[in-house]
TrEMBL record:
Keywords: Membrane, Transmembrane, Transmembrane helix. The chain crosses the membrane at residues 37-63. The keyword Transmembrane applies. It comes from the Bacteria. This is Lipoprotein. The lineage of its organism: Bacteria, Pseudomonadati, Myxococcota, Myxococcia, Myxococcales.
């Protein structure tokens, strides 16, 4: 199982960030593609970077990426 997790982590690193012109477009795309998403995915909305995480209730959240 650990090897699968490493392989998935490598695939995530190689993926380009998702880019959207507005938060509404990002939200709609995320809702339509929930099963394809990986936690930690970088999402760019109008030039601002966010990271995809889950909340305490399991909800998907876009959190501003602070460097």
């Amino acid at each position: 199982m650990e090897e699968q997790e490493k392989e998935e982590a490598e695939r995530v690193k190689k993926r380009p960030p998702l880019e959207f012109s507005s938060l509404d477009k990002a939200r709609d795309w995320i809702r339509a593609h929930k099963t394809e998403l990986v936690l930690g995915t970088v999402v760019i909305v109008a030039g601002t970077a966010f990271i995809l995480v889950t909340g305490g209730s399991g909800a998907l959240l876009l959190v501003p990426l602070a460097l």
